[in-house]
Amino acid sequence: MSSGPLDVMRGPPRPLPRKHLLPAEIAALLATAARQVAQAVADLRAKHRDGRLLEALFVADQTRLLVRLAARTCSGVVPLGI
């Protein structure tokens, strides 16, 4: 055998680099996340005994925090106060 079978094997292709978002797109993501939290708060106030709505508020708030963190980390220009 002139070469080993692993000599001709290749790994999976590497993913393309991610593209940066425009400031308007980041602002839209932040606004959407804030609206989801506001809606979850309003829903919970309307039916405060519904445990599913409490979970929905938790998920919306965690999503907002993640979006804010990603926006701040990636762009360096978005303040956390938004």
Explain the layout of strands and helices:
Layout: H1 23-46, H2 51-75
Describe this structure in words.
It is a single chain. The chain is mainly α and 82 residues long. It has a domain at 21-75. 60% of the residues lie in helices and 0% in strands. It has helices at 23-46, 51-75. Helix 1 runs antiparallel to helix 2. The N and C termini lie far apart (65 Å). The model has no long low-confidence stretch (mean pLDDT 85).
Stretches where pLDDT falls below 50 for ≥5 residues? none
Radius of gyration: 22 Å
Q: Helix proportion of residues, in percent?
A: 55-70%
Inertia-based shape:
elongated
Mean pLDDT across every amino acid position = 85
Share in β-strands: under 5%
- List the helices and strands in order: HH
- Helix/strand-derived category reads mainly alpha
Straight-line N-to-C gap = 65 Å
Largest sheet: none
Based on DSSP secondary structure assignment, what is the total number of beta strands?
A: 0
Number of helices: 2
What tags apply to this protein structure?
82 residues; mainly alpha; 2 helices; 60% helix
Give a short summary of the structure.
The chain has 82 residues and is mainly alpha-helical.
